[in-house]
Automatic annotation (TrEMBL):
Molecular function as annotated in GO: ATP binding; magnesium ion binding; malate-CoA ligase activity; succinate-CoA ligase (ADP-forming) activity; succinate-CoA ligase (GDP-forming) activity
Entry's EC annotation: 6.2.1.5
Source organism superkingdom: Bacteria
Organism: Croceibacterium mercuriale
Subunit annotation: Heterotetramer of two alpha and two beta subunits.
Coiled-coil residues: none
Entries under HAMAP family matching the protein: Succ_CoA_beta
UniProt-annotated binding residues for substrate: N274, G331, I332, M333
UniProt keywords, alphabetically: ATP-binding, Ligase, Magnesium, Metal-binding, Nucleotide-binding, Tricarboxylic acid cycle
Binding site for ATP: K46, G53, R54, G55, V112, E117
EC main group: ligase
Name of this chain's protein: Succinate--CoA ligase [ADP-forming] subunit beta
Pathway(s) the chain acts in: One-carbon metabolism; formaldehyde assimilation via serine pathway; Carbohydrate metabolism; tricarboxylic acid cycle; succinate from succinyl-CoA (ligase route): step 1/1
Family the entry assigns: Belongs to the succinate/malate CoA ligase beta subunit family.
Length: 399
């Protein structure tokens, strides 16, 4: 789960981390009132969407000349004009794709007098099994470009969970950022606070770009992105409450209500599978047979009729789907129960595209019998390869 910049900053501030003062706003009036509550005279009006690159982004509805989604405003009137310009319009950035994202929230913050911009992020490094801090003196810009062109300017510092964050980690961060004196001390303190926040909140990624040194010699978090391990969200109801579903794919939101792991993809063949590993293998074998999966969908171990029906509806809501491949291993759930679920669901949703079903496991013969006697045009398959070949052939034939 991801947060908006203002939400992430408010969380970080609870750990003592320095952020510029700011006020979120859902309307032009709130933006103006927010600006009035700030010291001024410089303000920054920032579009709140779950994507970076806002500063260099373009609004679809405004001309090429219009400014992006992060704007410096020199007066309350400027704040008012920028807020009116952005709210309700669609911001396209390098991270949103061509469709862009509608701006429904703003963050009005203090304008900061920047001396230098740095980069600092934290993530769970799977290779070392540790939390890593990734830092660079090249902040503010696209870090992927820095990593590509000048990898030597990016430093990674990993923290052993057994010993936790130690003062030497903080010194390594300050050294990598080439900071000295008071700023080095500030960087050491900040790294410890960030590590504490990251681990206490079960984050899986925290990126600060830029971290800035102000002309007054302070270190401030100017922009941040934070994402959380969804399997640990139950431990943080306050964080879970910050979820903004309008930023997510509507079908993925619907799927999460039924505890289905669904991810929309670009292909033509809808997949319904139990188990993430089997789902990955199913997607691979569809590609091997020359077509592409329209989604990843893991119905989980305890798939029942309600879940199967919800899964069918979600798959079919995607207009790109030209056929469905069901690949289920009946382990905990018996194949005959699953077959009944598939038949009931297919009837309920009035299935209009080819459906190939491969069942394996407990009571498989009974399951196959139920599918065969259903009166529906369900194509049975014997194994994974057979299922993939059949669904591709069916879809090509129907085209
Ligand atoms: P994004 O990464 O989505 O473009 P940022 O918040 O990083 O958004 O803003 C882009 C740039 O705008 C920053 O690198 C910084 O130079 C400038 N900026 C952002 N917030 C402020 C602020 N409060 N004061 C001054 N400049 C800012
Ligand atoms: Mg940024």
């Amino acid at each position: 789960m991801n947060l908006h910049e203002y939400q992430a900053k408010e969380l970080l501030a609870k750990y003592g981390i320095g952020i510029p003062k700011g006020v979120p706003a859902m309307s032009v009036e709130e933006a103006v009132a927010g600006a009035k509550s700030l010291p001024g005279p410089l303000y920054v009006v920032k579009a709140q969407i779950h994507a970076g690159g806002r500063g260099k982004g373009k609004f679809k509805e405004l001309g090429e000349e219009a400014k992006g989604g992060v704007r410096l405003a020199k007066s309350i009137e400027d704040v008012q004009r920028d807020a009116a310009d952005m709210l309700g319009n669609t911001l396209v950035t390098v991270q949103t794709g061509d469709a862009g994202k509608q701006v429904n929230r703003l963050y009005v913050t203090d304008g900061v007098d920047i001396a230098k911009e740095y980069y600092l992020s934290m993530l769970v490094d799977r290779a070392s099994g540790r939390v890593a801090m990734v830092v660079s003196t090249e902040g503010g810009m696209d870090i992927e470009t820095v990593a590509h062109d000048t990898p030597e300017l990016i430093h990674s510092i990993t923290i052993d969970p057994a010993s936790g964050f130690q003062p030497h980690h903080g010194r390594a961060v300050a050294f990598a950022l080439k900071l000295e004196g008071g700023l080095a001390k500030a960087a050491q303190k900040l790294s410890k606070q960030l590590y504490d926040a990251f681990t206490a909140l079960d984050c899986d990624m925290l990126e600060i770009n830029p971290l800035v040194e102000t002309k007054d010699g302070e270190l401030l978090v100017l922009d941040t992105k934070m994402s959380f391990d969804s399997n640990a969200l139950y431990r943080h109801p306050d964080v879970a409450a910050l979820r903004d579903e309008t930023e997510e794919d509507p079908m993925e939101v619907e799927a999460s209500k039924y505890d289905l792991a669904y991810i929309k993809l670009d292909g033509d063949i809808g997949c319904m599978v139990n188990g993430a590993g089997l789902a990955m293998a199913t997607m691979d074998i569809i590609k091997l047979n020359g077509m592409f999966p329209a989604n990843f969908l893991d119905v989980g171990g305890g798939a029942n009729k309600e879940k199967v029906t919800a899964a069918f509806k979600i798959i079919l809501a995607d207009p790109a789907v030209k056929g469905i491949l069901v690949n289920i291993f009946g382990g905990i759930m018996k194949c005959d129960i699953i077959a009944e679920g598939i038949v009931a669901a297919a009837k309920e949703v009035n299935l209009s595209v080819p459906l190939v079903v491969r069942l394996e496991g407990t009571n498989v013969e009974k399951g196959k019998e139920i599918l065969a006697n259903s009166g529906l045009a369900i194509v049975p398959a014997d194994d994974l390869g057979d299922a993939a070949r059949k669904i591709v052939a069916e879809v090509k034939q129907a085209a």
